[in-house]
Amino acid sequence: MRFDVLTLFPGIFAGYLQQSLLNKAIEAGKVGVHLWNFRDWTTDNHHSVDDKPYGGGPGMLIMCPPVFDCVEHVQAQGDAPGQLIMLTPAGRKLDQRLVEELSTHKRLVLLCGRYEGFDERIAEGLKPLEVSVGDFIANGGEVPAMLLIDTVIRLIPGVLGDETSHKYESFAQSGQLEYPQYTRPREYRGMKVPEVLLEGNHQAIAAWREKQSQERTASRRPPVELQRASTQAMRSSSEILPLPN
Fold it and tell me: Is 125 assigned to a binding site?
């Protein structure tokens, strides 16, 4: 999979690209990450990319021309244009379902904003998929872009050492949180590994894990549990009545 990251601060990614699974995936040729600087498409001596918002207000907005020109150049690279994504708090929430959708693309082009964000006409004209990594404000789109890359590459065949491991993680199957896990020693500072995990009864272990997953989800992520139940109900009802477009 190819990622193109469009940003004002490509240097932020230097250390990130050289670490852990992502670095191994890049070296193995399973993932490619290309960095592009909006300033390379400016036309004035100061390489200006931002200006004051019409109507007043604090901060500066990233202007249309360098972004449009940069995107059009980048999309012309490679075998085919990629799915354009704008990292923004106003976008669709990044969850495992969206991660799975994004992992089906061969190429993702990520727009990283700064300052007070992008001129609205960038979203209007380029029509990116707008994605939010949470209901909070970051200094820019670079860290959210890293988070998106991190989640997507885990679903690329050959990136994880154990090809089945992502299937059992939180949200991967039923939308529930993952069950608690333990390793050696069997007892540490008075805390013991649950006996069921030591007895070798795989059926009992599976039942224990499912129960723990359900209880953890109910206590820590009630909205997730409610959303899952609602989704299941909608699927059941859709067998009788068609869902609205």
Answer: no
